[in-house]
Amino acid sequence: MPFATKAYHCKVLQLTKSKQSALQQEYDSLQHYIQTREDLGVYSANKQQADRFYKHIKKGTKYPLSIRNDLIKLEHDPSKIAEYWVRVPVKAVKGGLWIGLIKPYEPIPKDVKICECKLYKRDNTWFLDVVVKKDVPEKTEYQNVIAIDMGIKHIATSVELATDKTVFYGKDLNHVRAWYFWLRRKLGKKKSIDTIKKIGSHERRITNDIIHNITRDIVNRALETDSLIVLGRLKGLRSRGHKQNRGKKFNRKLSGFPYYKFTEYLSYKAALAGIKVIKVFEDWTSQICRKCGDRGRRLTQGLFLCNKCGEENADRNAAFNIGYRALGYTSKAGVTVNSPITLPSVVRNTMMRSEAQTKEAIYFNRW
């Protein structure tokens, strides 16, 4: 049965002096063992995990404490102190060390299997990445398709092929990034390096929260409408943007956008819901009219013009083309779409069709 994995990033509560001492001793002894292979007193299983995972060691690098899935124990026991408690095996405490966790971004489901977890320290604060696995039967038949185009003005534009419903995501993300960019420039003139580092961490948390909400909304909509999710493959996007030399401002926006993070969040959320996400190449999807198939042009970053059909939102046009292209490859991906979706009654541009089919064939044949 297919399964989905997910990591919950949890902050450890402030520890008592005795717990802090025991955990720090285990962590420091592990770092010494990784760098020198000299055992100063590391729990045997933690040492075995280090031998298993850390083959190429960089001098001075701090490595996480990898906790084996059969040794870690997680309990949901809400109290005034903590909501989750976890037992970590350490040499200094027989039976392991129980530590409290601050409530993660999302509740950890009860019907999941705990996998190997990572404990590490950053800026004098302990963190635990709780990795879980869940068996999820993946759907193979759908009634609709949600196609997503990722861009600069909107991190994601989703369209439903059966209803033409369109949603633009990421306007608030642009505002957040623009404000923090302005703030970093202002602080940079004052040489406030420490403050810049702090706001960088704060910006990442806000960005993650926005992306979590966007991807959750898309997956929830896919559940409501029984939809397959289709994404454009963005490999090489940054290099292409650099070669085209679209300007300093455009390149800055392009390089800083969290496309990979968006794709990862959407993929694991969909997997946990049993919804399949397939990816198709984006070649020509932003240059071809979704209605007539003729090649058009972009008047601005967000406006597409077809000489026959007129103006159209560029991201919306590209998203529809991504969805139409995916319909031709659903059988190769092992899924079917049962709802009759009306395609434009045109023969697609020959160059677009042949290049896309060649690249898709290469992609699917690798598997």
Helical segment count: 9
- Structural class computed from helices and strand pairing: alpha+beta
Domain count: the total is: 2
Q: What portion of the residues fall into strands of 2 or more residues? A: 15-25%
How many strand segments? 18
End-to-end distance, in Å? 18 Å
Low-pLDDT runs: 236-244, 250-255, 347-356, 358-367
Mean pLDDT: 81
Morphology: globular
SSE succession: EHHEEEEEEEEEEEHHEHHHEEEEHEH
Level of helix content? 25-40%
Report on the biggest sheet. Answer: 5 strands, antiparallel
Write down the Rg.
24 Å
Summarize the structure.
This protein is of the alpha+beta class and 367 residues long. 39% of the residues lie in helices and 24% in strands.
